Amino acid sequence: MTRQFVRSVGHVVFGAILICSAVPVFAQESTGEPKSAGEPKSAGEAAGGGQIIRKEDQPPPHLCAGCVAPMFTEGSKGSLSPYGRIELDGIYSTRNTNPLDPQQFNGYGTAAGRQDNHSSTLNPRYSVIGLRADRTDGVHTLSGVVEADFYGQSDSGNNLVPRLRLAYMKYSPNNGKTSFVVGQDWNPIMGLLTDNIDFSIMGYTGNLWQRIPQITVRQKFSDNFEGLLTVMRFERGLSNCCGNNQVRPTPGTGGVGGGPGSTQAFNDPVQMPYFGARFAYNGTGSMAGTMIALNGAYRYYRSAPILSGAGTPTSVSAAFQSGRDINSYLVGLEAVHQLTKQLRLMWELAYGQALGNEWFRWNQDLNWSTGAPVRTMTTWFQLSYAHSRDYTFLFGYGIDNPNDKDLNGSINAYGTAPGSVGYNSSIQYLSNQRTYLTAIHPIWADLVMGLEWQHFWTNWAQPTTYFSKASNQADMFTLSAWYNF
Fold first, then answer.
1. Which of these, 100, 184, 292, 431, is most buried using a 10 Å CB contact count?
2. Mean pLDDT over residues 289-302, rounded?
3. What is the rounded CA–CA span in Å between residue 13 and residue 442?
C-alpha cells in the first residue's frame, strides 16, 4: 500500500513538472494577451494544436525546403489567386491534320497528313487550372505560378490526366526593374505568340515556342529598352520516336551505339542547355504599341549514335553511328506594330540550325539518315482587327522551311527506290505552311466564342513515288467556347 501511494505521488509530481516546464514554451509562442473565457479558439486550438505564432524578427535556424506554409511575411502583403479556363473545342478535319503528334488524334493541327480521312471530335483538353501567389513590401516583389492543363500524351478511355504547364517563381528586388525567373515558364526567346485559337499556336509552321524549364534574368534599362539572359532546356531531349532510337556510348569504354559499353538512359543525348539573349525596344508616346526585339540562342552537344537495327537504314554513315558534334543556334527578330487604333500587325522571322523540342519542332532537328543538323528558316505574321467590343478578326500565315539539301539521304536526293534511304523520315518535311482566319466574339462577361479556319500545305520529305515529293493540303475547322475565371 505504501509503495503504491509513493508511486502515485511520484506520478503526480512528475506530471506537475512537465506542466510547469511547458508553460514558458507556450508563453513564448503566444501573443502575450490572455484569452477571455468566451473568446473563440482557432482551428488549431480546437484541434488541440495550440496557438503558435512565429516571430518574424527571430527566424527559425534553418529553411525547410519542403515547407509549404509562409515563413517570412512580416512587412509585406500577399495574395493567393486561383484562376483557370474551361474550354470545349468542336473540331472537324478534312484530312489527318495532326500527323506530327498522332497520339493527340485531331486535338490540334500541325500539318496536312497523308491519310485522306475526315474526322471530327469534341475536345475539352485545353481547359486550364492555375494558382498564383503574390507578395510585396512596396519594393521587393515575389510571385509564384503553378498551372496545368489536360493535354497529356494520350487520351486513355476519356481519362484526361493533368499535365504541368507552368511552375515558376519570379522575384524582383526593385519593383520590377530587375527580375529573376526560376522554373518552367514560356520560352523567353522568340516569345511573341499568335492569338489564334488552335492549341499548337502555329507550331511547326513558323512559330518557335515552348514552355520550358529555365533561369532567366530580365533588366529594364529605361522605359523603352529592356533585355534578358537565359539558360533553358527541355526536360528531355530527343524522344524515342519512329525508329529514332538513340544510344549514348559510356565515356572511356569505346562502345558504339547498341554495342558494349553503351547506355540508353532516358534515350537522351542532349547534355548542354541553350544560352540565350533578347533585347527589345518598346515604343512610348506616339510609338505606343510598337515593339521590336532581337533574339539569339546557342548550345553544343554530342549527338547519340543510331541504334543499329531499330528501323534505321543499314547504309547510314559510320560517322553518325558514333555520334556527331552538334552546334545548335538561333537568330531571330520579332515585332509588333499598332498600325491604327483597331489594326495591329505582329510578326517573327528566324533562322537556325538543329532546332527541335525546345522550339516545338519535335524530330525536325537532325537528318535521320546522316545525323547532320538541319538548317531552317521560319516566319509568321498576324493581322488583328478589333472591329468593335463584340467582334475581333484575325488573319495569319506561317511557314517552317528547312533547307532541302540538309534533308538529303546518304545515297542521293530521292533515294534509289520509292521509300528508300533518301528523305528517310515519314514525319519530316521540306516545308510546312499554314494560314488561318479567326473570329472571336465575347458573349457575356468572361464567356467567349470563336470560329477558326486553318489551311495546311505540307511538302513531306518522304517521297511517295520515285523522284517525286509528297505534298498534301488539309483544312481544319474549330468552333470553340471558353470561360476564363
1. 100
2. 94
3. 74
Contacts for 244 with CB less than 8 Å, ≥ 6 apart:
238, 363, 368
Separation CA 364–CA 358 (nearest Å): 11
Query: Could you read off the pLDDT of 6-19 as tens digits, one per residue?
Result: 455 455 444 544 44
Q: In this structure, what C-alpha cell is assigned to residue 412? A: 542521293
Terminal CA-to-CA distance of the chain, rounded, Å? 73
d(CA 416, CA 463): 11
Q: Compute the CA torsion angle 206, 110, 464, 401 (nearest 10 deg).
A: 0
The predicted model gives 348-365 an average pLDDT of 93
Average pLDDT over residues 251-266: 42
Q: Closest by alpha carbon to 142, among 180, 91, 188, 107?
A: 180
C-alpha cell at position 89 = 473545342
What's the grid cell of residue 313? 537504314
Question: For 112-159, what is each residue's pLDDT tens digit?
Answer: 988 788 899 999 999 999 999 999 998 999 999 999 999 886 666 677
List all residues 6 or more positions away from 287 whose beta carbon is below 8 Å from its beta carbon.
none
Read off the pTM. 0.77
Half-sphere exposure of 482 (CA within 13 A, CB side): 22
Distance CA 432, CA 259 (A): 37
Set out the domains of the chain in order of their start, with CATH numbers.
79-484 (2.40.160.10)
